[in-house]
Amino acid sequence: MQKPDNIIPSYNDSLIYNDYLLSIGDKVFVKIYSTQEETNAIFNGPSNQLISMNLDGSNPNLDLYAYSVQPNGSILFPMIGEVSVAGKNVRDATRALEQAITPIYKFSSVEMRLISRYFSVIGGGRSGRYPILREKINIFQALAMAGDIGEFGDRSKVRILRETENGTIVKTFDIRSEDIIHSEYFYIQPNDVIYIQSLDEQFFSILSFPSLLATVISTISMGAFLYNIFFTPLGSR
Q1: Residues contacting 209, CB < 8 A, separation 6+
Q2: CATH number, position 175
Q3: Which residues pair with 31 in a beta bridge?
Q4: pTM (2 decimals)?
Q5: Of 7, 132, 219, 229, which is most buried with the most CB atoms under 10 A?
């Protein structure tokens, strides 16, 4: 990370973490807490069955207690029907489900979590899809999971492709700037695609002083070799 100058751009202090809004295709894990054991068993299965489950969606048994957001923006909950959750954060979606359950199952509360959350990295020799296992994950943590940016990745033009209600937006920034940690580019969201552009001139890219020295020596050696071949008389070789 470098201080902004004539080459490294500066970014405004615009760090804002917006809660992720549920959208079509998302999956949520739901658990019901009630004073009635029968109600708990209907929705949650046998006691303690879910304790060992991973909430990253890697456990196939989790689908038994996960609900997908349908094309109409609702989840279809047993014995309750459709509950609209699209466009809401998890907190508001939980409240909506609690309000739908209360008239039927009194003294009940709901636990809801977003599962199967992923981000993707493409380009720079580090392509892959990675799970989001924490509530918040920043750009440096995401790239660390992907194995950092490759030697020939352009750190000055990192892009994040993000789906919003108004379509896909593209955020472009220079990750070398230390201002990143205070900017809107710091946190990533589920379904983000991080695109690493390759440097335009990989062959001549100088990554460090040793690589510069090696390039200079190799160039001189090649020049001397070619000179000996084409300009040295045959009798003196």
Answers
A1: none
A2: 3.10.560.10
A3: 111
A4: 0.65
A5: 132
Does 91 map to a domain?
Answer: yes
The closest alpha carbon to 194, from 234, 136, 142, 116, belongs to 142
pLDDT at 229: 66
pLDDT at 58: 53
- Give the number of domains in the chain: 2
- Written as six digits, the tokens of 151 are 């030697």
Q: Residue 33 corresponds to which tokens in the numbers above?
A: 């807490």
Note whether residue 151 is domain-resident: yes
Is residue 41 within 8 A of residue 209, CB to CB? The reply is no
Print the domain residue range for 105: 27-115
- Is residue 150 located within the same domain as residue 188? yes
**Dihedral sign, CA of 130, 132, 138, 144?**
negative
Residue with token string 């760090």: 15
Domain assignment present for 18:
no
Instruction: Note whether 32 and 39 are within 8 A (CB).
Output: yes
Write the pLDDT tens digit of every residue in 122-170.
Answer: 887 678 889 887 778 899 899 888 887 877 788 888 999 998 777 888 9
Examine residue 218 and state whether it is found in any structural domain, yes or no.
no
Same domain, 111 and 135: no
Percent of the chain with pLDDT over 90: 16
